[in-house]
Amino acid sequence: MYQDIQETVQYIKQRTTNFEPEIGIVLGTGLGGLVTDIEVEFGLMYSNIPNFPISTLEFHSGKLIFGTLNGKKVIAMQGRLHYYEGYSMQQITFPIRVMKALGIQWLFVSNAAGSLNPAFKKGDLMVINDHINLQPESPLRGRNDANMGPRFPDMSAPYNKRLIEKALEVAKANDITCHQGVYVSVTGPNLETKAEYKYLRIIGGDAVGMSTVPEVIVANHMSIPVFAISVLTDEGFPEDLQPTSLEEIIETAKNAEPKMTHILSQLISAI
Question: 2-270 domain in CATH 3.40.50.1580?
Fold first, then answer.
């Protein structure tokens, strides 16, 4: 993997005049609009980057954006990768390792998720303060490269507490409904049954989705502070479970996106 990372980094540096980023951003389903706030300097399609997996989802752009946001140099993944697309955990987290090699010091992650907590409603935001990993394997499975991180990385605080506190302050000051809670990561791509939603709530989940945790594990492995936020696009309440569709999820995400974007922008400017 080390050689692949170096090859990819070399390609990117040649095409971005050695752009030196401070912050990496992963944009989730329906949440690519933050890119409009970035003063874009370069853009590279995943399909043109050596060793980069290609997003197979029609609603994910599959583009790496380089630019400035609130005075900070950022790299934004406009479209993430998922285990359910058929990639390995190492492949879907490869971009995080590349961003680290390019120099990022912080990672910001967003996603669309289903609410498990009856107090958290569709359209609300949730800052992730912990997670439960129900993915079938760890992205750290296999031989460990000590140059990237330790064999057994600590996960007692995978999400940066200072950024969580700041995000909640920003939300309160701007009258944005924003909770904090535990995110459960599952394989997907199917949504959950009533019994599964009930189970996920019983084990401590406040929201459920199909991403984020692999990236967060790898970021922690490489000692990158992480902030993650979910847009709650549907409600998984077993007592009154309603059918939903991808179109509804994307529409809800887009409607809530300006609130999420405001919080992320304020956090980035405060670093």
Answer: yes
